[in-house]
Amino acid sequence: MKFILTLTFAILISICFKVNAQQQIKIGLFRSSELNIIEIKSSEETIKVKADNIFFSLPINSTVLISAISNEVSIFTGNFNLGKFKKVEIEIRDNAGMTLKPVSPDYPENKYTEILLICAKQSKLSIINKLTTVNYIVGVLRGEIGYDKPFNCYVVMAILAQTYAEGYLSRHRIDNFNLCDQTHCQVFKGYFKYAPYQQAAELAKNKIVLDANGNIIEGLFHSNCGGKTQNSEDVWRNDLSYCKSIDDSFCLNQKNSKWTKSFSIYDFCLKLNIPFNTAQTNDFDFCSKIQLKNEAREKEILIGNKTINTIYVRTQLNLKSDWFDISCTGDSVLINGKGFGHGVGLCQEGAIEMAKQGCNEEEIIQYYFRNVVINERKKILFNN
Ligand SMILES: [Zn+2]
Ligand SMILES: [Zn+2]
User: Fold this and answer.
1) Which residues surround ligand 1, an ion (CB under 5 A)?
2) pLDDT tens per residue, range 73-107
3) In order of start, what are the domains of the chain with their CATH numbers?
């Protein structure tokens, strides 16, 4: 009896692990492009192709040309026309990459792993990458943080990416996938062999960040806060209890902590819709009215006689952040700014510096997000 119970338990455990190992997520690729023709090949492994009910293998280094013709997918291998199909599924072994090259329009090639689901609508290809969450996180690390960073910083970003994915799993339900590969969701750059990414994604697997009420947080981040992060409600309307402004000394003196940009008074006023006529160009009084020091990171500033929101100024003048001083000499306006990005949540350059100084992922996340905990993910939500 004891043996049977142990065996049953072992089988249950192995089933759980199997389900866990197969957690997959669907990522919509090239959604903003009108892709009509793509080419796929692999120099690493044989690729399996399933076109409706036809199965075949694609040898290493041979290519398959896929195009959208109305609502069907046409397939060519070499000079051989395989015909038109409703659904095409292309698979390569986990941990091997296949190259996808958009031919029409012509975009740079990129690698993807596991499964590509392809169909066509009105002569436009729809491509979905179905892959394990670990491989998804690797592609997000590549898209969102780059190379040669301290390892703990990759772990932090992997946990936040996982948290974001879990929180927004239904974002593209209407499109039949979970997340897109653009900034609308998280930038995903496909498959890439870089050991720190793989190791961080494995370590972060099943870890998510919860707020004081046990809810999944929005793992918001930006490049550099300039020395002070922002309250979420000061940037957007939603008041997130864990995204509160903190003073951040870690990101000072980093690449994006300071910037400058200059404009002619005429352009400056035109873009901000400030009344101006050219006769005022050398008018000292007018120039003095657009001087501004904003040490406290105020959200509303006085320019001339007009009160203007700093986010509006950032958008209109295409600035790196909404925290800046303005000075004016002669007929030009100089803007000295701090930070890069919206300033809410985790400051990447600060987190990198913290990791360099030996802080672990928990210390970094809890520095930028108030009253949060890193938990093991309990539910299996990535079933498709
Ligand atoms: Zn999206
Ligand atoms: Zn910062």
Assistant:
1) 180, 184-185
2) 999 988 889 999 999 999 998 889 999 999 999 99
3) 24-131 (2.60.200), 160-251+343-376 (no CATH), 258-338 (no CATH)
